[in-house]
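Tokens in:
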């Protein structure tokens, strides 16, 4: 993490863009590591991957049926079937293949290599299955009817050359680029890597994010509420948001409003953190413990570290903190404590930081333009960029809930944020607005 000097948060009213640029200029992608395929899921590929062997590696059957020569089944019909000698079975994984000569066929299973001499596969449904009693629906298991791997089979339909044959390299060819650097490895990508024989892959690991909420009033869900207490929702929301962004996230139970306890808790978490996210305690109150605990970090024992507490020209989420902590300069984002402020701040600042740590190029939520649907004009404070919870459907967007930063119920129904620029104080219904898509 870079430790370039930043303007003092006390003397400078930061814009949203300035704060985000400072974060992204400071946070650096994690160092690449080699991981086994099961452990690489969700990670970002560091290098292009080239195909060492074609897929499929040999011509093989796409059906259960009979491998035949085209000339032997030309003109075949139910009235005049082609009768072919069955020379044996070809199963998937089998080596030492049978030779299919003129007037012959080999019973073949899906995925089995096309035997020498054969030019096409006729599905078993086009045959009598060697039973001599008209078309059949399936093959019987070899263990139940070994005699069907020999004798004669009647074929009732012709087949063109290469019919029901999956050609060697028809998926990817040796030398092709299988995956590009920067690809997030999901289940299909893991499957492709395994299919081309890669047991390990070089990736940037998923960042480890520790989420910690503060406040003596916070009680864990499932416990009894007493007067003046509320349930801790922020740590659950932000831990889920960190996982949604691609991180391995650890939730720490709420820490009481005591600076020494908070400092000790954060120090204990540094060993498993690539990013720390706190929520609460960053405003101007007498019990804003995060500011109290972290304002002077790095003054003496941690040169280059330190947390800068700022005011941003945004609503919700005016108070913010950002910097580094510990001997390894682990980045720390200090977010406000109100649920909506906390979540909006995470989406705007913490999510891009996580995606940057992963090594992704596009770290932001997608945005679009949509027509505002509302019962009345939206108002916004002058000089603040406002982010309003909303639902987005078919090119229109409608606000949900009020402007209060404590209204968590409305947040659960939102899938977008309406962005009102700093120089706009009113937005009339029907106006086209910028929208950040959350899911």
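Residues out:
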């Amino acid at each position: 993490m870079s430790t370039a000097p930043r303007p003092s948060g006390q003397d400078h009213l930061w814009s949203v863009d300035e704060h985000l640029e400072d974060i992204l200029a400071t946070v650096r992608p994690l160092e690449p590591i080699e991981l086994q395929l099961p452990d690489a899921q969700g990670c970002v590929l560091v290098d292009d991957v080239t195909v060492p062997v074609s897929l499929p590696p040999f011509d093989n059957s796409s059906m259960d049926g009979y491998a035949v020569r085209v000339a032997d089944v030309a003109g075949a019909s139910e009235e005049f079937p082609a009768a072919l000698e069955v020379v044996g079975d070809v199963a998937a994984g089998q080596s030492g293949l049978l030779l299919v000569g003129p007037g012959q066929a080999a019973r073949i299973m899906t995925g089995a290599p096309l035997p020498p001499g054969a030019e096409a596969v006729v599905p078993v449904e086009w045959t009598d299955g060697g039973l001599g009693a008209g078309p059949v629906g399936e093959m019987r298991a070899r263990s139940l009817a070994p005699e069907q791997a020999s004798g004669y089979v009647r074929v009732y339909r012709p087949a063109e050359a290469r019919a029901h044959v999956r050609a060697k390299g028809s998926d990817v060819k040796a030398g092709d680029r299988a995956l590009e650097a920067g690809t997030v490895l999901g289940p299909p990508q893991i499957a492709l890597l395994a299919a081309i024989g890669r047991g390990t892959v070089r990736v940037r690991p998923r960042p480890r994010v520790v989420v910690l909420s503060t406040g003596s009033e916070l009680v864990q869900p499932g416990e009894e509420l007493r007067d003046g207490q509320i349930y801790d929702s922020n740590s659950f929301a932000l831990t889920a948001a960190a996982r949604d962004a691609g991180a391995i996230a650890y939730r720490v139970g709420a820490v009481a409003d005591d600076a020494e306890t908070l400092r000790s808790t954060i120090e204990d978490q540094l060993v498993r953190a690539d990013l720390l996210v706190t929520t609460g305690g960053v405003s101007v109150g007498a019990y804003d413990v995060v500011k109290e605990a972290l304002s002077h970090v790095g003054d003496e024992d941690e040169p280059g570290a330190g947390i800068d507490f700022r005011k941003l020209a945004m609503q919700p989420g005016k108070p913010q903190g950002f910097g580094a902590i510990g001997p390894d300069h682990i980045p720390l984002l200090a977010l406000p404590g109100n649920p909506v402020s906390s979540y909006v701040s995470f989406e705007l600042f913490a999510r891009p930081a996580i995606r940057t740590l992963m090594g992704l190029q596009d770290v932001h939520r997608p945005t679009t333009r949509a027509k505002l649907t509302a019962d009345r004009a939206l108002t916004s404070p002058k000089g603040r960029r406002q982010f309003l919870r909303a639902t987005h459907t078919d090119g229109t967007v409608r606000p949900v809930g009020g402007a209060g930063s404590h209204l968590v119920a409305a947040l659960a129904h939102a899938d977008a944020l309406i962005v009102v620029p700093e120089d706009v104080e009113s937005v009339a219904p029907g106006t086209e607005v910028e929208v950040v898509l959350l899911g």
